[in-house]
Specification:
149 residues, mainly alpha, 6 helices, AB_hydrolase_fold, TAP-like protein
Length: 149
């Protein structure tokens, strides 16, 4: 992301507000709705959803407030002026179903970095599921092999 798009700004603002207010259960619901691919959500029954939300809440009781500063950074970041100076092999991975950072914003980042390779993980959300992680790992491995890294 070169600069925060409207979706990222709204997410970051909401995340930080909920975390700072100690509304961790609400934060967990936000993360559940925005971080997981719709195809994965569609396979979950009510018990699985409750468990996933509870796990997110448990993790973010400590991490939520800690990450609120990161959310402030997300809302203010703008690397448009310096992206063209990246001079190392770069792989930009687009999560097709990302509902935190618009996929178009990730593609714009790839277009702004000279020589960047842009790949897309079809069906992936902001948080990759097991199948998405395997595809991502293969993309990374191939990229590193091409660049002898």
């Amino acid at each position: 992301m070169l600069r925060a798009d409207a979706q990222a700004v709204a997410f970051a603002r909401t995340y930080a507000s909920l975390a700072r207010a100690g509304r961790i259960d609400d934060l967990a619901h936000l993360l559940f709705l925005t971080s997981i691919a719709p195809a994965v959500l569609a396979t979950m029954d009510a018990d699985q959803a409750r468990t996933a939300i509870a796990d997110l809440a448990d993790h973010h009781r400590v991490e939520g407030l800690r990450r609120s500063g990161q959310m402030d950074l997300v809302r203010s970041i703008d690397i448009t002026a310096i992206a063209s100076r990246v001079a190392v092999p770069s792989l930009v991975v687009v999560a097709e179903q990302d509902r935190i950072v618009l996929p178009s914003s990730t593609r714009d980042l790839g277009a702004a970095i000279p020589g960047a390779e842009v790949v897309e993980v079809t069906g992936a959300a902001h948080i990759f599921g097991p199948a998405d992680t395997a595809a991502w790992a293969e993309m990374i491995d191939a990229f590193l092999g091409r660049h002898r890294l």
